[in-house]
Amino acid sequence: MKSQHRMLELIVAVSVVVISLASLFVAVFQGIVMDRTMKASVMPVIQVDSGNIDDDRETWVMTINVKNTGLGPAEIRYFNMYWDGEIIRDTSAFMARCCLPDEIPTDARMPYMYNAFRDGQLNLVFDNVQRRFLAPQEEIGYIAFDRPDAETQPRGRAIWDALDEVRHAMSYEVCYCSVFEDCWRARFPEHSREPVRQCIDPAIED
Prior knowledge:
Layout: H1 2-41, E1 46-54, E2 59-68, E3 74-83, E4 86-87, H2 91-98, H3 106-118, E5 124-126, E6 132-134, E7 139-146, H4 154-166, E8 171-177, E9 183-188, E10 192-196, H5 202-205
Antiparallel strand pairs: 1-2, 2-7, 3-4, 3-6, 3-8, 5-7, 8-9, 9-10
């Protein structure tokens, strides 16, 4: 009789332990699910695109736009443009390389660019992207480059037309984080996106 009583007590004790472990597992699993659900509900998704027409203004203007199409805010940790496999660190130097007539010698290309800006041949507007927060569906016009008039701004128009061709060979890399410090690195025009532990700017590493 005593052995049966002890066996019953053992069964009850084991059942209590099993139920407790099961409850703990369910609680942990629910916590994981809730955490993932919460993070997914505020996940940002950054997109980068370029074009050469402003539909609202009904005019030719070259643009590079950065937009958050996700559900939560995004902090842009870095944004880099690439051409010919290299980071574009100076826009004027880049255009001096890619977009001037071939007959202009190397040592005269940068002065040519500076003169074009100084003489009003070019009108290039930038907005800040680095270390900026984008709300869901917010868009930044990173670059707006109005097409110069062919008659009054012939040098600027030639540069604009050349850049309009070159931009199709350009690529972009942006690294951004959510409010929970989950970070992603995205590349365009590939539209690739991968999670990263942190955003380390290759422009600074170099």
